[in-house]
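Regression test attached.
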Amino acid sequence: MKPSVKAVIIDTVCWLYILLFIYAAVSKLLDFENFRIQIGQSPMLSSFAGIISWIVPSGELVIAGLLATPRTRRAGLLGAYTLMAMFTAYIFIMLNYSAFVPCSCGGVLEKMTWDQHLLFNIAFLVLAIVAVLALPTKYEHQRKLTI
Amino acid sequence: MKLYTKIVVLLSLTIVAIVSVGLAFRVSENIIHYDNKFIRRFPPHVADEFKRVELTYNSYYFAGSSNGMIYLGNITAPLQIMAFDTTLNYKRIYHVELIEKDLPFRSPRIKVLGDYFYVYEGSAPYLYRGRTSNWIAALKLRGGQYFSQVQPLDSIRLAIRYIAQNGESIVGLLNLKDTSNVKMGTLMLEKQIDGIFDTDGSLHVSPSTGKIVYNYRYRNQYISADPDFKSIKRGNTIDTVAHAQISLAKVKSHDYTTFSKPPLIVNKVSALHNNFLFVNSLLPGQFEPEGLWKNASIIDVYDIIDQTYRSSFPIYHIEGKKLKEVFVIGSKVYALIDTKLVAHTLRDDFRQVSK
């Protein structure tokens, strides 16, 4: 694949993640009390609702910031992948192992069923994997510099 | 990064993500059930109403159950008993007949268990027993120590909350075969302030497990004991009120003690079924929707065998009137709210056992 195509892929994935995370973080923070109650009532992480309600939106904002800065983009992509993998693991464990399944998520995602949500997350995971694999290797990086 | 490195990094991040979320789930579940920090869990639709009956009067109380029927006593018509089938479709009223009638009756109460029923008054004191087949009762106990609560364990043994000489409450087991020799569970209730007000609470028995259970009204504790009071186990409700927050004042001119300010009620009413204790708590926990407490009484469920918190569910107010008494039998939860008897289906989800 041409380096220019790879760059477009990486750019697109990064911006998709930036949009998603900023949207998700802002919608959580705007209705923070409600978000905290939802985590507290979640069948999985209720005991840590206090910490998690802060860590998740701030993590999303930090990763969006990393993705938006060219120098930290690689770290941002890996962070985005890890956070998305955690969300996916959360939904998977909840659907399969928890004693009950809560009613829904927030924002636009409210309209999705949990299975659709799972597919949505997996799609984003695939995007992140593609982008990471498209990241320039040292060799390409050096060649770019020599040009 | 080389392709190989990228794959290794992605794989390890995946493992980190899955393991951390999985671990957090396990730890969180353990904290919720064994070491709860006052975070309630409301699984959806645990107890949904399926039937409501208008009783006309608000003076009814739960008297017990037997063979697929539940019974209500009536404070203002003390010898009347109202029977319902578990679906509340069938209703019948019985009149209790007492063989010895020359006792100082003031406000007798009725308890029903299996084929037997009991009529008693702890301030007299007396106790009758009869069969539910004919509702005729004979005197079994007259005089002796005063008592304030009675829960039959079977046809001859009753758990009773007695009032000791010094006024303090003490739980005992009365055997009708030898009423002069009551087994006292002296270690069951623990005095924190005066041993009278601070130890107040509700006495329950679970005939299926043979346990006697006491749930304090002003502190976050319930106690379960065997009928011989040898094995006493204490569990905590999920709130943080370990010490009764009441202050008392002695009125010297009339020689009585009363609250000098309103007490902090932790557990208002409760019910026991098999090994599950259902407690109507008055204290909101963390991360709970405020609206819920305005519209409902909250019931917390505990397993008295391993002393774990299982889950909570709301019982909604009716026209602003709150839950007065709760009763659980089989997979049904019954509530007395003002003049109404409300039946709810209890889904097994209340146990909250992880798959």
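Expected vs. actual: identical. The radius of gyration of chain A is 17 Å.
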